[in-house]
Amino acid sequence: MKNSLHGQADDGARAGRRPLSAGQEYKSATAHEAAKQKHGSLARFLKTCAAGTAVVALARPVLAQGEQQAAAAHLFTSSQVIGVSVVIGVISAALLSTLWLVRQRGNLENESREIRSALSDAQQRISQYQALIADKNRRIVIWDGNARPELLGQLPPETGAPQDGEFLAFGLWLKSHSAADLEKAIDRLRDGAQSFDMVVETIRDEILEAQGRVSGGRAFVRFVALNNLRAELAELRIERDRLMTSISAFQTMLDAIDMPAWQRDPTGRLTWVNQAYGDAVEARSPQQAINEGREMLTTVARERIRATATPESPFHDTISTVVRGNRTFFDVVDVKVPGGSAGIAVDVSDIEAVRAELERTLKSHAETLDHLATPVAIFDGERRLQFYNQAFVALWELDIAFLESRPDNSELLERLRAAKKLPDQLNWKSWKEAALSVYRALDTQSDLWHLPNGQTLRVFATAHPQGGATWVFENLTEQVDLETRYNTLVKVQGETIDHLSEGVAVFGPDGRIRLSNPAFRALWGITETEAKPGTHIRALGEACAPSYDRPDGWKTFAELITSFDDERRSSQGTLELFSGLVLDYAVIPLPNAQTMLTFVNMTDSVRAERALTEKNEALRKADELKNDFVQHVSYELRSPLTNIIGFTDLLRTQGVGPLNDRQAEYIDHISTSSSVLLTLVNDILDLATVDAGIMRLNYAEIDLNDLLDDVSMQIADRLHESGVALEITAPAYLGSIVADPQRLKQILLKLLANAANFSREGTSISLECHREGSDFVFAVSDRGPGISPDMITTVFDRFATGAKSGKRGGAGLGLSIVDSFVSLHHGDVTIDSEPGKGTTVVCRIPSVDIPHSAAAE
Questions:
Q1: Are 583 and 574 in contact (CB under 8 A)?
Q2: Which residues pair with 141 in a beta bridge?
Q3: Which strand ranges, in their side-by-side order, compose the sheet holding 513-516?
């Protein structure tokens, strides 16, 4: 339809028709209707004329016949004269009607041309209106009843509005709140003809103006993309509505809570208060409190707030005031803003009362716990020691000054471990983390600690809901001892005997069997019924006779078990059964005149003994081969390397002759590589010596300050080569310890060389040293790439190298040698690293009381 309208409008434009006004369009339509009526009347007249013509045509033959008769008779009658007159009148009327019809047809054609011209002008006007509507900055949606809506015009692409049928899916391109409001407005427009004007936001944050109207029975909505000024005004309007909504929501919320809140102008005068504030100052309404200037806080408190509150640092403190005649404590927060200030007060009177009661209760509990014989320690939310009783001090024998410093729980465990007062653990880190997991646990944790001094403690650790934990140490030494002996007596017939691979049978003084284990019955090939409790040893011997019936067997056992000698004797021996089994037996007297008879299957043991003998011989030969290898490598590798290094140094002297730059560079490479190879050989030999158990530490008293000076001088070349600086942090006087000087120096050099290798050029590494009692503790830190968590557990393994991130590769023996030498000194080494932040290795070397030699274990 639109195409036809456009086509007609174009035809009208090409015909040079001018547009019609609204009055002209109405007149043209009226003329068209009149023309249609005339055309209908004309059609009816033409039908009448046609009928008259037919009458005339029928009358013509009759007239001709009458004329012939009149001519023949020359005789006219009156009736014939009337008929002729009528015919002539009809013919005249027909001629007149034809003339009138021709004239009216001309008039009708003129009016039809005018109507077509008016229609063409109207279509041209419609085309112009459609062109105006199709502006790119607006789009119109028209609903005509329940028919599918018509879309006219387009919106700019930057608005994100779809150009197809998805335009009406407002939720796809409008913000949710705008889409919901628009759909509700459209429903009211279509159902109740309620016009609307609103502003909507697109997902791309563009602003559109939507206008809904009803005209001619149709509902239409026009979407207009606003220009910059109008868009900015619309955005400000939206922002204002949003802010007003937020302010209203906050004020409603503040009115609903039971915490007094207020707002003041720059002079300190109240401008707004909530309902809780009005109730606190006993006002009928918040407005009354504002009008009368009723203050909830004292003048001193208000002046203090005004003096201390700043825009950067709000006032926050507990203030006491009187509310409804009662002393009340409020936690007050007052914020200073350019337009004045705002504040809120939280009633903490109950909290203050509970806090005071809690302090009294804790003090009472502390006095009670201090008199208990059970050691108790309480740690706060930061895991620091908050309380301990006298029994705790007596149990661990710790320094009061150390306990009063409120040490961390982890630090306390480390102190106890260093004093060798905690159980020895294979993995100290895992054990400590498991112990400290109580702070994250929901239930009470309990564990048994078997201390090195022989005591057994049951440790209860309970986490506090507010943070922290309580540790209770119950001494179970005597109880555990009694339980152990009791369990041993109870399980001697069950767990111990039934699960032995040796055959065991216990007989009473009357010679009747008391118990036997499955291994005993399997070795002798008897059933459980034949060896049931109460069976006499003679009947048991008869049941075992098919396996062995010689006199040195069950007859001898019966004599030993049923003997009435005052001194019962034990007996041992070996039996070879008819089945080929070789059994070692033992007759052992037990308390209460009981006797235990045991049998051990030695068939496999003999074979195992032979295999062990052969393996022991092979191990002995392998050990000899290893020692020979160490001696051979020591001679075969060190001697050539010594010659290479010596000749290299000789080539550098002036006596041999001058060297060019390339030769000098090659000599330096040879010297460096030889030194590295010599170090590698020495490391391998040291590890081999440790593994062989033949390394001895030569203890001597070492001045630690001299040791650090010596180490810094020896590592200087390596640090200069790597472009790394060394920072040594140590007290003015470290004192001395008794250790192996060479191995201790080797430990420091290995750690410093490793740190320099993994440090970036231009950075520095640090060596921090201090004393903890008689122990020498030092830490080497670098700012290198660090070690990933999955690699940190393998850094002390041999040949585990991180050369990809270091300046030069190595065999991966440095840290392994450090670990071995520290272990020989009965010390410990730990490593802490974080990827991208560097690595820290901490070593603890204890000092021995007197110089002595220690072998590697």
A1: yes
A2: 151, 221
A3: 513-516, 503-507, 594-601, 582-590, 571-576
Cross-strand bridge partners of residue 463: 469
Q: Identify the pLDDT of residue 184.
A: 92
pLDDT at 47 over 50: no
CA–CA separation, 747 and 704 (whole Å) = 14
**CATH code for position 314:** 3.30.450.20
Most confident of 49-58, 357-366, 738-747: 738-747
222 phi-psi bin (left φ>0, alpha ψ -120 to 50, beta other): beta
Q: For residue 72, is it within any domain? A: no
Distance CA 19, CA 119 (A): 10
Domain count, the chain: 4
Q: Which domain covers residue 752, as residue numbers?
A: 696-846
Cβ atoms of 226 and 188 within 8 Å: the answer is no
DSSP 8-state assignment for residue 494? I
Token code pair at residue 153: 């015009």
pTM of the model: 0.31
Q: With contact defined as beta carbons under 8 Å apart, do 382 and 359 qualify? A: no
Q: Which two tokens stand for residue 103?
A: 């004239």
Q: Does 612 fall in a domain?
A: no
Count Cβ neighbours within 10 Å for each residue of 61-85 and write b for 16 or more, e otherwise: eeeeebeeeeeeeeeeeeeeeeebe
Q: Which residues contact 336 (CB under 8 A, 6 or more apart)?
A: 309, 310, 311, 314
Query: What's residue 234's pLDDT?
Result: 67
- What is the bridge-based pairing of β-strands 270-273 and 315-323? unpaired
Residue indicated by tokens 């060596």: 767
R_g of the chain, CA atoms, integer Å: 58
